[in-house]
Write a structure and sequence with these properties.
The protein has 167 residues and is α+β, with helices and mostly antiparallel strands. The chain contains three helices and eight strands; from the N terminus they run βααβββββββα. The chain has helices at residues 16-39, 45-57, 150-159; strands at residues 5-11, 64-71, 74-81, 85-93, 97-102, 117-120, 131-137, 140-146. The longest helix is centred in the first third of the chain and has 24 residues, at 16-39. It is elongated and about 70 Å long.
Length: 167
């Protein structure tokens, strides 16, 4: 049996708010360290340490990527934070997927305004075509937004031709 393997990396578009927060944290940390060195204000070590920890642990979450791995009728979605920490987000069994359609397809009209949970694992770039996976898993019906590449869509179509809608 030959298993098909396709890998796809998607970088989340950076939010201007996160860039501003990142710059503000760096400036405040540098200011606190400068005050400790220049004025000998040892009390400023506490805010400098707190801000340094925020920069080390919180700021890498601003740089977010998703990796999709297609293997043996499953798509594994991993979240990569700051290009150094990886976390498995979920595994989608394509046998439990009802339909895969482009984001603005009329095939998805039956699922709109029904209060179905929508999970977004895309770059949030409006110029890129996203696909919605209608998934019936252990948590009920979920709409999963992804940006699979052409190779992944081709592999899915070869295995499940009726589930993939291309219009």
């Amino acid at each position: 049996m030959s298993d098909t393997y396709v890998e796809c990396m998607i970088a989340r578009k950076s939010n201007p708010f996160y860039v501003a927060v990142k710059v503000l944290l760096y400036v405040l940390t540098a200011l606190c360290v400068f005050l400790v060195i220049l004025g000998g204000a040892a009390i400023m070590l506490i805010p400098a340490a707190i801000l340094g920890n925020l920069i080390y642990f919180w700021v890498p979450g601003f740089d977010l990527e998703f990796e999709y791995l297609y293997l043996d009728k499953e798509i594994s979605i991993d979240k990569i934070l700051g290009r150094r920490r990886r976390k498995k987000v979920r595994v989608i069994d394509l046998n439990k997927v009802d339909m895969i359609a482009p984001e603005f397809s009329h095939e998805l009209d039956a699922y709109k305004d029904r209060g179905i949970k929508k999970l977004d694992y895309s770059s949030k770039d409006p110029a890129v075509t996203k696909h919605i996976f209608v998934y019936n898993g252990e948590h009920g019906t979920e709409l999963i937004c992804m940006e699979p590449n052409a190779d992944m869509l081709k592999c899915i179509k070869n295995v499940f031709p009726r589930k993939l809608r291309e219009y």
